[in-house]
Amino acid sequence: MDQSAVVAQMRQLIQVLAQHNHAYYVMDQPTIEDSEYDQLFHQLKALEQQHPELTQPDTPTRKVGGKALSKFETLTHSVPMLSLGNVFNQQELNDFARRIEERLPNQKIQYDVELKFDGLAISLWYEHGILVRGVTRGDGETGEVITENVKTIRNLPKVLTSTTTPIPELLEVRGEVLMPKAGFEKLNAENEAKGEKTFANPRNAAAGSLRQLDPSIAASRPLAFYAYGIAQCQPHHGQSTMSASLEWLTQFGFAVGEQHFVCDSIQEVQTAYEKINAERPNLSVEIDGMVIKVDDLKQQQQLGFLSREPRWATAYKFPAVAALTTVDNIDWQVGRTGTLTPVARLNPVAVGGVTVSNVTLHNIGEIHRLDVRIGDTVSVYRSGDVIPKVEKVWPEFRPVDSVEVHLPEQCPVCDSPVVMPEGEALARCSGGLYCAAQRIEAIRHFVSRKAMDIEGLGDRWAESLLHLDLLKDVADIYHLHAHREKLLTIEKMGEKSVQNLIDSIEKSKKTSFASFIFALGIRGVGETTARMLANTFQTLDALRNADLDALKKTPDVGDITAEWIIDFFQAPHNLEVVDRLIAAGIHWDAPIAPTRQPLNGESWVVTGTLSSMGRDEATQMLQALGARVSGSVSAKTKCLVAGEKAGSKLDKAEKLGVAVLDEQAFLALMAEYGQSLDA
Ligand code: IVH
C-alpha cells in the first residue's frame, strides 16, 4: 500500500469511529456492537503501528471516548480517568505479560483478575467519609458532575463508617455504574407496557438513567455501583496490592465484582478467563471481558503509562459475538395466537460459537426501523445466552437487486386476510377459528370452562384429536360422535371416556349467547366484553352485521377491539365455521334485555380490604350495574372503592382527582341501586 492509500484508510476509520463514538457516548444509542467497534479500532491501531509517521493527529487511539454534555456542570479530574488496552486471545495476553516481564526482570509478578463491567465509569469523592461528589468519566480529562444522581444509587455508601479502620480525610474511588440484568429486564418490560422507550442494553439504560437532570428518575432506576480502584487516598490506606485495596474498600460497604482472582502466572489468568467466560450468562451483571492488572501497587508504579493506557493493566475481551452475513429471504410465520412474525433466513454464519441461519425480525415495524431487505448484508449478534438478533443493516453493501419486504395481505397458512389495526405493532391472521396455525389454541379456548365448557377435551384430548385429523376446526367437535372407533384408538381413551366426552359435547350445545361469543376467541373480546356484546346486540345476526360505530358504542369495547370484531366477521372462513356450529345445534335462550344499568360503561377500581365482603363480590355488584372493573387507576377511572390499607391506588386516584368511595359510602350507593350483600 502506498502512503496516500494508508492515510486514506486511516481517515476513513477515524471518521467511522468518531461517528460511532458520538452515538455511543453522547447519544447513548450505539450504532454497532462493541466488538465491531473494537475490530475497527484495532485495525486503525495496527495501521498506526506499521506506519507511525502517518499517524493522524486526531486519532481516537490517543484519547478516550465521549465528550461531556453541556447540561451538567463539568469538572476536570485531578487524576485523569484513562482507558485500557485490549487483548483478544491467549497470544496477545502472553505478549502483554512478556512486555511486563521485560520491564521488571527477575521479579515475581502476580495478576489481579477482575470482571470488566459493561457500564459507565464514574469517580466518587469522599471528604471525611462523606460522599461530596460524583463525576462521570466524560472524555477522561473532564467529566460531568452528577452527584445528585449518584446519591440515588442504592448499593453505594453515602457515608463511610468503620469500627476498625480510620476514615480517610480524602478518598476518591473509581468504579462502574451499571444496571443488573434482572433490573434491566424489569425496567424494559415496564416501559414496554407503558408504551415508552425501551433500552437496547443495560449499559444504555444505566447511561440514560445517570444523565437524567431530574434525580428522581435516576432514583427510580435499579442502578448499582461496583468499585474497581482507588485514585487517591489521604492518608494512604496502607495496602500494597490491588486486590487488598479492593478488599479494603469492601469494609466500608463498597461492592466489588462477584468474582475476582489473584493469579500467580499468565496461564492461571487464561484459566480464570475461560471460567468467567463460561459463567458469564449466570452473572447478575453484564460484562464484556475481564480486566487483568499487575497486583502489586509498587510494580504498577514502576510500569507506569504509555500514552493514555496503563502498562500494568489490560482488558481481555470476550470473543466477538457479532458477525456479518446476508439475508437470503424473509418468511412470515404464524404463531398459535395468529401473530405474523417475519423471520430472516440467513446465509449460515458462526456467531459466538453457534451457527445462526434464522433470526426473528419481530414485526413489520422492526423491518422498517432496520430498513432490512432481502439481499442485504447484516450484522447478527448474540449477547451471553441471548437469542440472535439483527443488530444493523449495512446499506453500503446493498445489492442493486435487493427486494423490499411488505406485510402479506393473506395469511401464509390459511389465506384469511391479514389485519393490523392502527396503533397495534403486530399483524395477525384474522382466520382465528379456521387457521391451522391457530388450531390448538382456538380449540383449547373454545372448550374452556367459561366458553363452551366441554370437560376434559382441552387439556386431555385436544392434541390426540388433532393428530388423528379429527379436528380441523372447532365445528368438527360436534361431529366427533361419528368417529367412536377412531376415538377408541387414543391411548387411555376407553368406552367410558368416549361416552363422557360425547355427553359433555352434547350438553355444551345449550349455552348462552355471551359464552358463545367468548368461545369464538375474537381478539380483545374477554368474558366481560362478550357479555356486553350479547346484551347490546341480542342476536348473532345483529352482531355479525354490526358496523364499526355500533361496536364502538358498546360498553367495554374499545376502538381497537371494535376493529378486531369487524375483521373476525369479515374473514369468510370464520363465518363458515360459525355457520357450521349453529347448524350442529348450538343454541341459547335470548339474552335478558339489558336491565337498568346505571353505571353502564363506567370504569371502576376496587382496592384495599373491605370488611363486609371480598373484592370479588364488590366487583360482581358493580358489573351487575354495568360498570367495568379494572385493576388499575387511570385518568379514565370513574371511581375508586377504597377499603382498609388502600395504598398506591388510592394515592394515584387522589393525584388524578378520581372520586374515591370508602366502604360505607360504597354500600350506601349499591343499596340505592338495589344491590345488597344478600341479594
Ligand atoms: S480499571 C487506568 N477495572 O473499562 C484505567 N476498569 O476500557 C483503569 N472497566 O474506563 C480501569 N470494569 O470504565 C478497570 N474491573 C475494572 C473495570 C474497568 C470495567 C471499564 C472502565 C474503564 C474502561 C476501560
From TrEMBL:
GO molecular function: DNA binding; DNA ligase (NAD+) activity; metal ion binding
Domain of life: Bacteria
Residues holding NAD(+): 34-38, 83-84, 114, 137, 176, 293, 317
Occurrences of domain NAD-dependent DNA ligase N-terminal (ranges): 5-451
Domain Helix-hairpin-helix DNA-binding motif class: from-to ranges: 449-468, 485-504, 517-536, 549-568
Binding site for Zn(2+): 411, 414, 435
Reactions the enzyme catalyzes: NAD(+) + (deoxyribonucleotide)n-3'-hydroxyl + 5'-phospho-(deoxyribonucleotide)m = (deoxyribonucleotide)n+m + AMP + beta-nicotinamide D-nucleotide
Chain ranges of the BRCT domain: 596-673
Keyword field: DNA damage, DNA repair, DNA replication, Ligase, Magnesium, Manganese, Metal-binding, NAD, Zinc
Catalytic residues as annotated in Swiss-Prot or TrEMBL: 116 (n6-amp-lysine intermediate)
Enzyme Commission code(s) on record: 6.5.1.2
Assigned GO CC terms: cytosol
Cofactor(s) required for function per UniProt: Mg(2+); Mn(2+)
EC supergroup of this enzyme: ligase
InterPro entries: BRCT_dom, BRCT_dom_sf, DisA/LigA_HHH, DNA_ligase, DNA_ligase_CS, DNAligase_adenylation, DNAligase_N, Hlx-hairpin-Hlx_DNA-bd_motif
GO process terms (BP): DNA repair; DNA replication
Protein family membership: Belongs to the NAD-dependent DNA ligase family. LigA subfamily.
Function in brief: DNA ligase that catalyzes the formation of phosphodiester linkages between 5'-phosphoryl and 3'-hydroxyl groups in double-stranded DNA using NAD as a coenzyme and as the energy source for the reaction. It is essential for DNA replication and repair of damaged DNA.
Protein name (database record): DNA ligase
Source organism of the structure: Acinetobacter lanii
Gene name of this polypeptide: ligA
